[in-house]
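dumping these here so i dont lose them again. two proteins, back to back, each one seq then structure tokens. dont judge the mess
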Amino acid sequence: MSAFEPLQSRLDYAFRDASLLELALTHPSVAHDPPGTRPHNQRLEFLGDAVLSLILTRELFDKFPGFGEGPLTKARAQLVNRRALAAQARQLGLGEHLVLSRGEEVHGGRSRASALADAFEALIGALFLDGGYEAARLFILRRFGDVFGELTELPSLDNPKGELQELLQAESVESPQYTLTSVTGPDHDREFECAVSHHGVELGRGRGKSKKEAESRAAFGALRSLLPKEKPPPPA
């Protein structure tokens, strides 16, 4: 029996080319092991990310015909953040099948959220290459079916600070930091400028007639930079 048979049973899909499945599970750390030429899953991850986004976007588009691009973008971001994808990988038991370097193994690579999320996306890329669009679509809808069933309404972007915090904390426990960068104008007509940063990297700036409004607009700017494919609606 193939070492991947139990996994393929959980996937409810049998690969015609098992080498694609093995490649999807091969962590980039192996590139540093002698002789240093072993292929790994980064290219498949790149492909799988695009396939996953396309299929979920189409399903959201069909399920919620009355919603605009902002709520649809936010819903998609919630479905495909690192935490959600790592959870999918854990449910499938991908960690036990990962091909890791010795160093990555020692440092807990099998349970690392980033490695699991990347492997899940790479798996989708492998499914797409092996079975085509329909095979990938059926797999994704099986995996996300429960989430879609619970999704009866979409979140909005009318609270940019809250949305930004939720988006960033899917990747890190650190909250975004807001800094007042300038206050201009006379006392009766002040204009405030704030910047928002995360892990020391500035993500956006905004101006407003109050510090709260400036922070909200800074968060909105950050969301636009983090979700470049879709323009969220302007904050209230």
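---- next one ----
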Amino acid sequence: MSIEKTFVKEGIKVAEVEEFLRKKFEKAGYSHTEIQRTPLGTRIIVHVHKPGLVIGRSGRRVNEITEDIRKKFGFENPLLDVREVSTPLLIANIVASRIVTSIEKGINYKKAVNYYMDKVIEAGAVGISVEVAGKIGGVERSRGQKFKKGFVAHSGEIAERLVDYGYTQANIQAGVIGIKVRIMQSLPKEVAVEKKLHPS
């Protein structure tokens, strides 16, 4: 197998593992997963807001999911490492999940989005953007709506480095509603220095 095909295959596997763990740990405030190859096996680091929901009593749930990963994805000697996210409102996946929970409880999507956008800015983010798509606002046809507060880079190196991205879906009676969240957690160092030198 060529190097290119190997990289593509590995990339697909990483994405599948990420999706598998996101669904498993959504209620624990799932953030993201890192996969590290070591001489002893594969270390899978899962970042969540509530580690206790992942670990389970006496570590039983971690052991079960580690075994599921070994069988499903073929990792040799996988090790699941669970780490706590200290600032959940700066993590896009967690904020997206909280918006979805609110919508599924019957709260108006605009109210839910605006509430969490305010909370994210209060938590110290530079900006947040939210896209809602589906049968929203009681309409029969699917449509989308965008919300934004503060500054969020949407492309380029700054976006890749400083913007956290999350996506999930709400299941309501009218159908499925998709929620995309982008959170710019901090300003680039060069911008921060310029602001300090030339305060407005």
